[in-house]
Fold:
Amino acid sequence: MEQCRTTIADLPRGVYDHASHSELADRGLRRYNPYLFDFDSTPLSLDEPAEHWDEPVKRNHLERRASAIQRLKLEHGERNIDAVIQNTRDLGPKGMSLVTYHNAMHRQARSAFVVGAYYPALVATCALGERILNHLILDLRDSFKSSPHYRKVYNKDSFDKWPRSVEMLTDWNVLLPEAAENFLILETLRHRSVHFNPETYATMREDALLALTLLGKIISRQFGYFGGQPWFIEDTPGAQFIKTEYENHPFVRIYLIPASGFVGVNYGMEFLGSGWVHLDYADYGDGSLSDEEFAKAERERDPAKVVTRAMIEAQDTKMKGT
Structure:
């Protein structure tokens, strides 16, 4: 009797039906591709054009700069626009991060700094750092029940000892080294700023900027893309794919895979009203690819074979006519 072959077309949510992807006949030819992300590059548009730039390049940059300044005026008002521009430039771009709980709060802390509310920005940034550590432990602890740390955290609702939290998440191979290091620096700044310290008055802007810089590095490294994170396949310019060996890693499974589509090398992307979505073939056939082979096939794919909406509609029309 012929065995039933399960394909993406058989799943109600297709490439996003994460719980059913293990059933796919062609799963060895697919990888998870994160597609939900948050970033803000506005500060990069605010620099003055360099003298050595060609005139067309200068003109385009000045147009983008004027547009960025207009957006800042609409968002923050015109009264202190020069300070707003300088604060935005000093803050730098908001790094690319997967869409999760911290994005809105990070944006609010950055906005406080931009308008000159330095102490609110400082305290909010430190509080968000602690919240991220708490989220990671609470979201992931049940995946580490055999860990000696588990008995210390299984029945708690919050954690305020940063070094202990960082040690635990590091031992679980969740927190990346650079993120761990920056958490500990941010914790020192938190203690100096939140607990009474007269020196805070003189360094408020400097401390707020440092705190936001540290938090930005933490988020970009732990939750970001294109930063050499160990769970992503190397050498896939312009896109990120999760390594097969990391698909069951607790951090990847809980944070990254729900924000990913399960695609083959010829997948396409389409922007709809709600954001970007994947377009893909229903079945890539039999066989499997190593991560290195997948990367090579994705880099060398034939543009004519990349899935488009027109291809899908033409296939649907053909199927209806048979």
